[in-house]
From TrEMBL:
This is DNA-3-methyladenine glycosylase II. Its EC number is 3.2.2.21. It holds the Pfam family HhH-GPD. Keywords: DNA damage, DNA repair. Residues 52-204 form the HhH-GPD domain. The lineage of its organism: Bacteria, Pseudomonadati, Pseudomonadota, Alphaproteobacteria, Parvularculales. It catalyses: Hydrolysis of alkylated DNA, releasing 3-methyladenine, 3-methylguanine, 7-methylguanine and 7-methyladenine. It comes from Parvularcula lutaonensis.
Length: 213
């Protein structure tokens, strides 16, 4: 593995351990170096951003997010509740995503869900609490806990970009083997599953000529 090109010491140490036991990740790290850990604002704004980004390209997601933030005072939940569905649709949001954002805003403003409580829960409990929200599945919950809470040992199941990156770097799982790949990764990459995911996302960014994570 080559020298540091980004990333904190904790991430770099995890990368060294992963590279020593995974040829695919070692291949990626030789080119990209350790990734910078993606840290984001949490709470309603953080989860809403991930919901908006679901199943969209980076460029499309960023464009829609910028418009929605401008129209809702930075994704303030009370502003989201006051903004009409037609207005939100005009910004590029689909009807399901509008419903998810509005229901989540109501849950937060009316006290049915408190993001601060997640910090008192372990990874499994926190994921289950998030998955109880409308529009939040296992992938969304994992990404929130990785990016917004800095948890390090979660794997975002169902992320086809991770499988594609693994294949690009010499992996042997087929393109249709996402379930098998997820099951393998969850076992093989523990206790650094989130770091492994960041390395693979970094591979996608490198291949597509985008800035690293």
């Amino acid at each position: 593995m080559t020298g540091l090109r980004g990333g904190d010491r904790r991430t770099a140490e995890a990368c060294r351990e992963l590279a020593a036991r995974c040829r695919v990740l070692s291949n990626i790290l030789d080119v990209t170096g350790p990734p910078r850990w993606r840290a984001r604002e949490g709470g309603y704004q953080g989860l809403s951003r991930i919901i908006i980004e679901q199943q969209l390209s980076v460029a499309s997601a960023n464009a829609i997010l910028e418009r929605v933030q401008a129209a809702t005072a930075g994704l303030d939940p009370e502003h989201v509740l006051r903004t009409s569905e037609d207005n939100l649709r005009s910004l590029g949001l689909s009807r399901p995503k509008i419903r998810y954002l509005k229901v989540l805003a109501a849950d937060v403003t009316e006290g049915r869900f408190d993001f601060a409580e997640l910090q008192r829960l372990d990874d499994r409990q926190a994921s289950e609490a998030l998955e109880g929200l409308l529009g939040v599945g296992r992938w969304t919950a994992a990404v929130y806990l990785l990016f917004c809470e800095g948890r390090r040992d979660l794997w975002p199941r169902g992320d086809v970009a991770l499988l594609a990156a693994h294949l690009m770097a010499g992996g042997t799982f087929g393109r249709q083997d996402i379930k098998a790949f997820d099951a393998w990764a969850e076992e093989f990459y523990a206790p650094h599953r989130g770091v492994a995911a960041h390395i693979l996302w970094g591979q996608i960014a490198h291949v597509r000529g985008r800035a690293p994570l």
